[in-house]
Specification:
Elements lengths: L6 E4 L6 E3 L3 H13 L10 H15 L7 H5 L7 E4 L2 H11 L14
Antiparallel strand pairs: 1-2, 1-3
Helix pairs in contact: 1-2
Length: 110
């Protein structure tokens, strides 16, 4: 299983999708935070950082064309960004490799 944390994004349309932020998305947030002093310190921006990292990852992965302002406010703003549960990630990983350990010619059920 990867160490990357998958985020589930729910836009205003309700069609949820997944993104995986990386270090470049975190660095983009830090750069933007330094330019927007009114946002305050990084310790005051835990929720904004999660939303920003999701937006940055969605832009990078080609899953949105929204600007940060469109993504974070207004009638078409994203409704929710949550972490995909570890159980869901492990189940998906297991499903991807289902049957790989079964030797050829062996029954798959009893």
């Amino acid at each position: 299983m990867s160490n990357a944390r998958v985020l589930v994004v729910t836009p205003a349309t309700g069609d949820a999708f997944e993104v995986t932020p990386n270090i470049s998305d975190t660095l983009a947030f830090e750069t933007t935070l330094r330019k927007n002093k009114a946002w305050g310190s990084i310790s005051e921006n835990a929720m904004r950082m999660q939303f920003f990292r999701a937006w940055s990852a969605a832009k990078r992965e080609g899953k949105t064309t929204q600007t940060w302002d469109e993504w974070s406010s207004g009638e078409n703003a994203v409704v929710d960004v949550t972490f995909k549960s570890a159980d869901d990630v492990e189940a998906a990983d297991a499903a991807d490799h289902l049957g790989e350990d079964t030797p050829e010619g062996q029954p798959t059920s009893f």
